[in-house]
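Input:
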Amino acid sequence: MDAIRIEGLTKRYKDVTAVDDLTLSVRQGELLSLLGVNGAGKTTTIKMLSCLTQPTDGDAFLDGHSIVTDPTAVKGIIAVSPQETAVAPGLSVKENLRLMCGVHGFAKAKSNAKIADLTALLGLESVIDRKAGKLSGGWQRRLSIAMALISEPQVLFLDEPTLGLDVLARSDLWDIIRSLKGKVTILLTTHYMEEAEALSDRIAIMKDGKLILCDTAAAIKQTAGTDNFEQAFIRIVKGVAR
Amino acid sequence: MRMLTFAGRNTKEILRDPINLAFGLGFPLVLILLLSAIQANVPVPLFEIQHLTPGVAVFGLAFLTLFSATLIAKDRGSSLMQRLYTTPLTSLDFILGYTLPILPIAVVQSLVCYAAAVALGLDITINIFFAILGVIPVSLLYIALGLLCGSVLNDKQVGGVCGALLTNLSAWLSGVWFDLNLVGGAFKKVAYLLPFVHAVDMERALLAGDFSGIFPHLWWVLGYAVALLVLAVWLFLRQMKRQ
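Output:
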């Protein structure tokens, strides 16, 4: 079954078409990466799917709920980990998690259980009482993902989750994202080719707001006639291979 | 429940900033102590404690505008707001969550001001209680200004507009630091077209037990508070839609 069904989704800003007639489906439990150079329309797509921006045209259905006519239901089943780290800097790690439990209306017992589970899953025990604003980028990103997972989302949007992280922090986050595969439908945007290749079930390549290809990493390499995924991406985006 | 969680977070963010505490509580206290010391050496009717305290209590609220506007502007500039916009929090939750925490802080700030004034010789009467109650409509005015500025300015601009401009306007046009009759003319007319001097005059009347004297000042304060609140809510919702 499709967790996300996108039908002709379009976003226009005055003269610029940020996303142009995007049609795509994501299966339940699948991890789909959106790849593209800057301005390809990846973040705008996520903003529309998470009801932050209204589409100019088209619609998308998350678990059958329309982002245009039923955004409240959509907000109840999604979570977003934005491009920049989205934490409350003056609160401790535990307080940040409790904040998310509260805004989702969890009772105290459920909040405590969720905080304990996610602290263990994301390995946050050693920083649980530290102020979020004082943590390193890697820890903040972990916390940001924990905050996104607290509502037990059916669909998780990860917008450039490892941007600016060092190699070790990125590797740790990859492990966490892999552990979520199959349980949560994940739509991930990234600039890192190796990240998309390592984590994704399928990869959608966007250029100038249009979807130009969506397939597995192996199939994309085959289409581009190269063993190197980065080369394949460059060839496809430059129009050398389709 | 959802709104209260968000309001709780905002309270913590404001109170955990030592600069906020220093300016919100420390600065009004320093002003009362300093001006009372001047008054002790060079008596000026304006700086008599029963005259000075209501003015400082009102002036101190200008800092609450700065705190609230800074928090909103910083949130708007960060991805935290984006995350929260994708949760079941409603527009009303956001607006109440940003405004409600300021009210108790305003009351505590006034309590501290009046406690300091009592220590410096202000008579303890029931009127102190009424004066502290009177701070509530005035703080609505300053809260509305905070929501308004936080909705349209970034955190650096908030520092300039609320930190410098608003505090100075509140100081010059309120009759706290000098009698507006000394300047008179257009300056006094403009001051009385703005809410700051009305807020101070209302507080002074309450502390003096002159309850009929709070009018028409209360209407000026409430009128500005409601108008600014409506404008602030509209601007906040507009920026929320733009996100």
